[in-house]
Amino acid sequence: MPKNQTSDAQPREKAGAKVVLWLLLGLVVLFGGLYVAAHYVAGDKVPRNTTVAGVRIGGHPQDEAAERLRAGLADRVARDIATTVDGEQVAVDPAQAGLSVDYQSSVAEAGGEESWDPVRLWNYFTGGEAFDAEVEVDEPTYNAFLTGLDEQYGATARDGAIAFAGERIETTKARAGRALDPSDTLTALRGAFLDEDPDDVALAMAEVQPDIDASDVQEALDGFASRAVAAPVTLTFEGSNVKVFPADYTAALTLVPTNGELVPTLDPAKLNEVVGARITQGAPVDATVTLVDGRPQVVPAKPGVTFDPAELEAGFLGAVAKPQGERTLALTATVAKPDFTTKEARALQVRERVSTFTTYFPYAEYRNVNIGRAAALIDGTLLKPGETFSLNDTVGERTEANGFTKGYVINDGILVQDLGGGVSQMATTLFNGMFFAGLEDVEHKPHSFYIDRYPIGREATVAWGAVDLQFRNDTPYGVLIDTSFTNSTPSSSGAVTVTMYSTKYWDITTTTGERHNLTPHKTRRIDSLTCHENEGFGGFDIDVVRYFQPVGENTEARDDEVFSTTYTPSDTVICTNPDAVDE
Predict the structure, then answer these.
(1) The whole model's pTM is what?
(2) What keywords tag this UniProt record (predicted)?
(3) pLDDT over 90 percentage in the chain
(4) Phi and psi (nearest 5°) for 432?
């Protein structure tokens, strides 16, 4: 080839290559622009030919498509679902059944999302399918709805049961129930929920078997219940036999449905109560001191026999289920010692009367009730050396439940009615008993004004929660407090006596001074429907001295003790209300 031809061809080839390159670049730019334009047009729109539950939503952005779907399904979502339950027409509100439509999820499922994926862009312009709407189910709402249908149209299955009534067995027959199947019912309702032309949904009740059926009841009867009431169970310990009978111990037995069986269970507290009542040895009894034919005597302590409740609980069900002749349970016995022994009681040396004092009171039925009740609660109290007696703690609150009634008490210088009126008579008698026994006065408060049936300067009042009578046994011996009480009658005074027994430690004498600081009384006129008239008298101060003389082995010296009392005037009370009742 000539040299000049070669040189001419090379420029032409280069020029052609450039044209091709520019052409390719142009095509890239063209298609790129078209791709960007396609993406811009498609955006997050749903493919153009898409329907959801028959509603056309294609070609619209997600939010708009969701609103179109909501509007298109509004009538179907709001309408009742026509059903029959065992042939009976029942209209079901979808909302009450917990059914709803998730519009956003339905649109997303149909492909309404923004993407550069060419397949997504291709589908937008050429695709689009028919989708079902995403139906949501609120399970708690659905379950409550289904329960309501079952209660109205079905029947609850009843478990068989066994119960004990003393030594009798009471059985409850098992009964099959009828209920809708939760899964099948939900599938049927969901299918008809958004159907454009739904048929009636037939919901059929299915038989529901009880967890405890007749065979389970019979098995429990044969294996446990019948044997449980067949004969008593014998408990053996410490060489002794104690029988507990079905009429008593079946209160502690229960047959509990568990995993399709009736399982025997035991109430340990009730069983311990039953067994404890049958063990005659019982709990230990403390020694004490009491009067026998007017003389103090030691009542010996008694040991008790106890058992391990856990041992009883572990073996009792097994013993109950055994046949007759084998119903025995051996328990390990423990001897329980009393807290206060006979030796300790004798060491108190309660041997003789160390004081006695009696006060008298005029007739009033409330005094008979209240003083008598207080005396009964105090009677037999044993004070050990160093112990303090409290009348309020021993007698308790003066309430009707505690055996007290309303009577007169002093309040603000006059007599008014309140529960426990008259108990101060007991306090005064007890104070004098402790006074002449030589015990330590811890707390006492005289009446605000003087009552002439009480020893002047040696008397005490009490009020629940406010005023108490307390004294301490500061001798080395025990002190037994004995009370005796005689009712008052319309023709005779009542009497209450306190006698204290111990070993004499002090010989007590006393003197009473002259009245001084005399104050006159006043007159009050009270306009009240409940008013108690009173003839007043003046107030005064008085001093009483207690002298201690050691007795026997007592070598202690003690100073004289002065009790100073100030009595306020007792005002004259005139009732001015014509309808006043002097109760």
Answers:
(1) 0.52
(2) Membrane, Transmembrane, Transmembrane helix
(3) 51
(4) -70, -35
